[in-house]
Amino acid sequence: MDTKTKVKDVVVKLLKVKPDELKEGQNLETSLGVDSTEMVEICIALQKEFGVHLEEKEVTKYQTLDEIAGVIDKKKI
Amino acid sequence: MKKIAITGIGIVAPSGMDKKVFWANIKAGRSEIKVIDRYDTKLYPSHIGGQIHQLDAYSHISSRLLQKIDPFSHMALIASEMALKDAGIDLAAENLNNIGIFMGNALGGWLYGETELRDLYIEGREGVSPYMASAWFPAAPQGQVSIYYGIKGYSKTVVSDRASSLMAIGYGAKVLARGKVDFILAGGMEAPLSPYGLLCCNTNGDLSTDNDHPESAYKPFDKKRGGFVVGEGAGIMIFEPQERVGARGREPYGYVTGYGTTCDGTDRIKANPDGKELARAIRMALDDAGYKPQDIDYVSLDGAATMEGDVSEVAALKEVFGDRVRHIPVSAPKTMFGNLLGASGAVDMIITLLAMEHGLIPPTLNLKDVDPGCQGLDYVIDKARPADIRRALVISRGRAGINAVVALEKP
Predict the structure, then answer these.
(1) Helix (H), strand (E) at residue B403
(2) How far apart are CA A76 and CA A70, in angstroms?
(3) Final residue of a domain: which of B194, B217, B248?
(4) Chain B CB contacts of A44 below 8 Å
(5) For residue B253, is it within any domain?
(6) Nearest chain B residue to A14, by CA
């Protein structure tokens, strides 16, 4: 499973939304109305999933799945 | 005070999650008090109560939101939706800046709180949900209802032990009477049956431990009383100025016409047995409504089922109503589903409004042998009694004698 698919999986499971609610190419706020507190949860869940340290400034609700996956992939190298 | 109409009822209670089902159970005198079976409660001194089992079946709330809120907010959201629908209010046509929310509860959201505290000690800081802070605290239901509907007017949460919701209603009605908002949602909610919440209720020492006889354990004013039984639920109503109701062409359930509140100020836990401060609160509500004692046709009792609670309540009624007290029907219908603590006053008020509508006084259960200190009242026992209730009082009291009284009138 690639990083983007895994990130999507984490977000969908955490927020209890349907996968198709997360629109391709849109950021998390635009597609799901993610708020700042949900973003804290997402950040913690992604750290657990990928075993990397993420600052809250690095992954934000204004990013798309591709962008978040990009941040994580860079950390993994 | 200026008359305030009640036009919508939302009820989430062990006796029913719908006004019709709830009233059918209440008028039949059916007990819903059972052993609490949600988790192993056997070691709790009191492990009986009024539980709600079908919350999800009535819920319009998404799973996404549910994981961020405590059940007490969930119940408030369901009851608010029911009340708005019942009142026929379309929020799209209202000015959301001029709607208020006045809610009361005693404990806050303990299930959420205790679960996250467990995670804090087991998993550490990062194990705690970031929603903890906004889920457990007593004003959470008011906030969630406000966010859900985008309501932005003058609002407040009252925390005043078991008197919380009746005080929220009294306070909200006064705000409405002064014309600060167009209409309000007001009432209360309580979810005390979580493992830690129930433990706190037990340490209070006011709960019945007659666990082998759940249905008959709650017996206020009886010689064999042993404390009250807890329950969970919410009661929320829509309150509007009379002229607005007329313009909308709605028929209200009734009117709030007066409110009084006092504190005993004598002990940390017990009410003052002399009942003088409760009597003063009753007089305040009567004066506020412009009523004489002889105008009252029914009194909904607090019925704490503790010695000081019962004796002081009866003493207060005797002081205010004199000899006429023998001819005023009184009852404590909460003996059927438990004392919903901070939500109890709102639910008692809903019952009183339904009693006015149906011309039927719901009974007190389990009152077999009236305590010598509580004699002289016209208790409606076991079976509902037909009666035309024009004007009524609802009494709600918290620990140590926080007294709240609301006067109601039939349309």
Answers:
(1) strand B402-409
(2) 10
(3) B248
(4) 126
(5) no
(6) B64
